Amino acid sequence: xxxxxxxxxxxxxxxxxxxxxxxxxxxxxxxxxxxxxxxxxxxxxxxxxxxxxxxxxxxxxxxxxxxxxxxxxxxxxxxxxxxxxxxxxxxxxxxxxxxxxxxxxxxxxxxxxxxxxxxxxxxxxxxxxxxxxxxxxxxxxxxxxxxxxxxxxxxxxxxxxxxxxxxxxxxxxxxxxxxxxxxxxxxxxxxxxxxxxxxxxxxxxxxxxxxxxxxxxxxxxxxxxxxxxxxxxxxxxxxxxxxxxxxxxxxxxxxxxxxxxxxxxxxxxxxxxxxxxxxxxxxxxxxxxxxxxxxxxxx
Length: 299
Hints:
By secondary structure, the protein is an alpha+beta fold. The protein has helices at 12-22, 91-97, 111-115, 122-130, 148-152, 228-234, 241-254, 267-286; strands spanning 3-7, 29-31, 34-41, 44-51, 61-64, 68-72, 134-139, 142-147, 165-171, 178-186, 194-203, 210-219, 225-226. It folds into 3 domains: 3-51, 2-Layer Sandwich (Signal recognition particle alu RNA binding heterodimer, srp9/1); 56-171, Uridine Diphospho-n-acetylenolpyruvylglucosamine Reductase, domain 3 (2-Layer Sandwich), CATH 3.30.465; 178-286, Enolase-like, domain 1 (2-Layer Sandwich), CATH 3.30.390. The protein is 26% helix and 28% strand. Strand 11 (194-203) and strand 12 (210-219) form a beta hairpin. The radius of gyration is 20 Å and the shape is elongated.
């Protein structure tokens, strides 16, 4: 019969020490606000539960106009949805966190749970990549930091060393006259076929010309990727319908679309349309509704 030992550490050092002492799974499983690992001793396997509820750094939700947004790895994602910055400059992140975009884990899943899986949740990862997000990592050797883009490119947890774990996600302050959107589409033929597109735009004062863009893509079974040619094309260009359409074509060229799906022949059209919708929505959000220099105040 399996034994279970539960620990409630109060610091990152204590969490790292528990994981190191366990000498079990090198990459702990994250479920909600706990890290799970297992060790095999003389008495049989023992399940180790490390409850993160009392670790301050992993339960923070902070916003600063200069430094940006910070979300702790143990924060349930329904809490940021009520946070004012996610209704303003970081609205693209709310697109990926919203119930319509969530997978069965639901809104009570934490950021650490959705990003620490073997395959990080793309509904959250694509908006984070668009925003230039990074994750803070802690472990036996101290602190490190990596981009969410690098985290998603890892293979079977290879981006983290044994005993390391995610502490928080960090998003830089959004530039003035910027906005983003994340769109997801599921094939009518099969619920297993899905596409995701994230777009973040920075506009010039005329609110028509793009001076910076990030465009991320994902197709079911693949990894998140950047459409770099589409980003370069949008830079310095007036975003009329022709430019939006051309960016969609470039996005299709960058994507690694599924080849075995029964609806594979429909993906290029669907991806172009989805990219266009995301660009238009991001453009709308980049246009201020009142004073363009106004900013969301910290809660």
